[in-house]
Amino acid sequence: MEALRLVLLYVHLIGFALLLGGALAQYLSGRLRINPAMLWGSVIGLLTGIGLSAPLRDGDEPAPAKLVTKLVLALLIFVMVFFSRKRADVNRGHFLGIILLTLVNAAVAVFWR
Length: 113
What we know:
Blueprint: H1 2-29, H2 36-52, H3 64-82, H4 92-111
């Protein structure tokens, strides 16, 4: 089971990199729109995060409050990305919100023990 958890974690990190990297690339280019990397990163992050929340460890489970917090953040990110994906330009605040929520979600994962 540990191997499955590590594979899920690896794919989860790839989803994070796609989402944040795609968002930063768009932001630095000056054209604020949702690119395919952001969409796929949010989908991968959400699905693998749900998989990682399954009880795959032997008694070393994360706190349920942490899991719910991360799920809510991941759902917010996914909704913000999914429903804005076809717009030619995304509002600057909305776009920065995606980046901020992505960073907050990573911070919750790292710092909440």
